[in-house]
């Protein structure tokens, strides 16, 4: 399991200036994808979580809002805090908060849907576009 990936990702996001978060997220996404491609890590819920959030932010900057794989409740709470900080700093538009809450709502909580998660063949970083 890649529990350390999520923990180090959180520590990084909390320790850097908020203005550097989007660049750091882009770099993290590239490193994790490279690790997956070169078989240095295995896909699991931690990899899916980190890649999902990275992709959400990178696309949200462009005005595209995507759904992601199921997330553990703790991950969703942490990501929500980061999104609020980015909005407060003017790095993301205010409307992203509503999109984030809808996309990452508790109905998509992996701890509430463990049986669905274990039965799915989801690929880390695989998304479905949400349109309104």
Characterise the protein shown here.
Helix content is 58%, strand content 3%. Strands 1-2 form a two-stranded antiparallel sheet. The chain has one domain. Mean pLDDT is 80; it is low at 111-132. It contains six helices and two strands.
As an assembly, this protein is single chain
Put simply, the count of helices is 6
Q: Enumerate the strands of the largest sheet in spatial order, edge to edge or round the barrel.
A: 1-2
Unreliable spans are 111-132
Largest sheet: 2 strands, antiparallel
Overall residue-averaged pLDDT value: 80
Beta-strand segment tally: 2
The helix-strand sequence is: HHHEHHHE
- Rg over CA atoms: 14 Å
- Counting structural domains, the number is 1
Beta fraction: under 5%
Helical proportion, percent range = 55-70%
Task: Note the gap between the termini.
Answer: 36 Å
Bulk shape? globular
Instruction: Indicate the structural class.
Output: mainly alpha
Topology:
Blueprint: H1 3-15, H2 21-37, H3 45-61, E1 66-67, H4 73-88, H5 96-103, H6 114-119, E2 128-129
Question: Gist?
Answer:
58% of the residues lie in helices and 3% in strands.
Features:
132 residues, mainly alpha, two-stranded antiparallel ribbon, 2 strands, globular, disordered C terminus
């Amino acid at each position: 399991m890649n529990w350390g990936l999520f923990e180090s990702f959180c520590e990084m996001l909390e320790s850097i200036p908020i203005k550097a978060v989007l660049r750091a997220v882009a770099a993290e996404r590239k490193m994790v994808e490279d690790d997956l491609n070169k078989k240095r890590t295995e896909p699991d819920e931690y990899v899916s979580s980190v890649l999902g959030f990275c992709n959400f932010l990178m696309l949200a900057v462009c005005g595209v809002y995507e759904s992601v794989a199921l997330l553990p409740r703790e991950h969703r709470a942490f990501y929500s805090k980061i999104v609020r900080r980015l909005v407060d700093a003017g790095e993301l538009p205010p409307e992203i908060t509503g999109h984030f809450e809808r996309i990452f709502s508790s109905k998509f909580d992996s701890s509430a849907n463990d049986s669905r998660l274990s039965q799915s063949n989801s690929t880390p970083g695989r998304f479905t576009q949400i349109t309104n």
